[in-house]
Structures are given as structure tokens and as C-alpha cells.
Amino acid sequence: MALVSIPATLHSPAGAELDDTEAERIRHDFPALGQEVNGHPLVYLDSGATSQKPRSVLEAEQDFYETRNAAVHRGAHDLAVRATDAYEDARANVAAFVGAEPEELVWTSNATEALNLVAYALSNASLWAERGRGGSELRRFALGAGDEIVVTELEHHANLIPWQELAFRTGAALRYIPVDDEGRLDLAGAARIVGSRTRVLAFSHASNVLGAVSPVGELVGLARRVGALTVLDACQSAPHMPIDVKALDVDFAAFSGHKMLAPTGVGALYGRAELLDALPPFLVGGSMITRVTMERAEYMPSPQRFEAGTQRVSQTVALSAAVDYLRETGMARIAAREAELGARLAEGIAAIDGVRLLGPAPGEEWYGHRRFGLAAFDVEGVHAHDVGQYLDSLGIAVRVGHHCAQPLHRRLGLTASTRASAYLYTTEGDVDAFLAGLAEVRPYFGATAFGASARSPR
Asked: Counting CB atoms within 10 angstroms of each CB, which of 153, 299, 328, 441 has the fewest?
């Protein structure tokens, strides 16, 4: 069996603050962070899009392929048994990480698929109920004309478009909770919008543009008052802060492995067991059935009823290893560290002339929470893509564009922004190098209020 690396974080004192010294040690666990880009040491500030992977995660996936590779839930031979054990052990480990039971965690390819799974399952529930298929418990999921689905104006497209399409398929109306000029949710308006016709309330736990944590308790309370289902996009929270889906009291939650040290191609959907067992499946085929005739099929309970076809086994094993790494480091420590880095980013960005910081101002709390380690901004007179290109010439990786949140950018009067996002391996030196580079952007381009020159940073 392959030797799996021991993370540097295992040597950190329990409960100690995650400081810059430890972050430097952590960096050595991540091979990608040791390279140079354009002649400069890589400064990776795009973890909000995808995180880098530690050796222990890379080796866990390799070890699976070298020692246990086989189809899960399909064979009685030794490799198949060990593969199935690894697959289900990973499910139990990741479920515990977010406070769920194993049967409440469905493997998906990513959070986008997880959110679509819920939306399409609700659509199927409407069709089944209309045609007299399924039990009485299915009726609570059926949507039609007169029903309403509510989202917020700050959603990632993955938590907006599936609900647009569900409304189209079922005849339900889609409504949204607006934000103000700074991006804060209109909670007074939310109390009026979420009403007796609301059947689903979908919202993000943490904004991938504003760096702000949402008021989950207030939103869930509004949904509970009217009996609506709640769907939480946890893509920007599960990797960066402690999360307990039961304590949050949501009905469904989605997150992606690639944002939390794991490979691409794996994500998860949490759902209350009684809800998942009552929902119709999203995809159908092998592995998720109990009995098939030439006329019809009967489906297994969750989670298998939502996992048709050959599974993403090695990726789940690697995600489990990523969860071990995060758990060993300490999610509360990671959250505290990233709040410090977020404050450092916000203060530095806000201090640069001609740069507009999006989301909470430095030192400001929204809904009782500090900014986490993410900051998006607009540079006056310079397009976000040019900002990103200039920073890349210095070896600094950031995200540019609308971050799959066009409606929010439009509400803030922008078409695009630049985003820097930190993680447990980010150092204060990374942030300072980024801020120094950002301060050079407008002078480099000769930016004025009327635009930027066409000069290339290359």
C-alpha cells in the first residue's frame, strides 16, 4: 500500500491560533504552491474558485487506484468489497464533517449538480403527483401555478438558474429578496416576500462576491413560518468555517469538493432523510433500483436512489482525506485565520485610491458576522480582466469576471469585478504582495475616470 503523507498541521498545538508561521508550514503540503509564475513565486488568491490540494489528498486518490480500484456495490470479490467500504466510509466521514447522518449525504459531481438534483426532483414530484404516482407524502413537494419559489439577488447562477427552470416547468412563480446599494439583503422585504405561497426558499450561506455570511437563522425562520423547504448553497462556507446542517435547520445543503482541498468532479447534497426518501429520483439507471420489470422500476431509499450509474469513487475517497486535513487543522481556527486575512484584504483594498471594495467595509459586520477571507473590488478606469492580467504578470492569481453572479453585479452597477480569496495556506506575505501589485494597477494603465489605456502588461 502506498505511503500517505502526514500533513504538517498534525504537528500544530491543539487549539493554538493558526498564525503565519503555521501557514508557511502548511504551504509545504501543497505541491502547486511551490512553483513560479512569470518569474515570480506563485501567490495563489483564487481559492474561492478552486483550492489547491495537499499531498495527503493526492496520495489518497492514487492509493485507491493502486490498491482498491473496483466497482462499488456491484461485486462480491475482495477488491469490490474494499472499494465499497472505502466509498461508504468516505460518505460517513464527510457527512459527520457537516453534521449529517451517512444516509443523508448524496454524492454528486459538484454543488451545481446537487442543486439541480433538488430542483429536478421537485419537478418530478409535481409530475408524479399529477399522474397519481407515489404516496401521499409526495404531495408536499408538488409545485404548480400559484406557488412561489424564492431566492435572493446575490445568488451564484448555480442557485438561481435551476429555480428559474423549475418555475418554468411547473408554472410556479419565481421571486427574489433584493439587496440594497451595498449588497445587504432587504430582510424587511424578505418578511413580506416569503409568504403563504412560498414553497421553496433557496439562498447562499456565504456570498462569493461580497465576502459576507448570510443571516441563515432569520431566513430559515421565515421559511419555517410558512412551511417552505430551505435549500442552502454552502459552497463558500463548508470549506472555510464550521458547519452543522442540523444546527442551521436547513432541509437541503450543497457543497463542492474542489473548493475544499479535494479533486474536481465530486460534491455532495445533504438532505433530511425523510425528505430524500420521499423525493423521486433525478437520474435513473443502474445501482439505484430494487426491482425492474419491462414496464416499470422501483427505487432504493436515499442515498442510493440518487446515485445512478458508475460512481466517482476515487474522488469521494480523496474528499474524505481532504476533510481529515481540514478537521485536523481545525475549522474554527481556519475561520478565525481567514477573518483576519479578510480584514487585511479589505483594509488594504479600501486604502487604494480609485478602488471600490464590494461588501462589508473594513471592520464592519453584516448580520453579526465578520467578512471571511474573500474580497472583490472594482478598479476605476481599468477593466477587471486587465487588472487580473497585470497581477498575473507578477505571479498573483485572482479571479476576474462576474463570478457567476451577474444579477448581483448588475445591482451594484458593475459588469465585472476582481476577486482575491484566501485559504488556510495563505500567508500575510501573499496578501501584502497582492496589495502592492494592486496599488500599481491604475498608475500602470494611466487610468482616469474615463477609462484605461490599451497598454499591455506583458
From this structure: 328
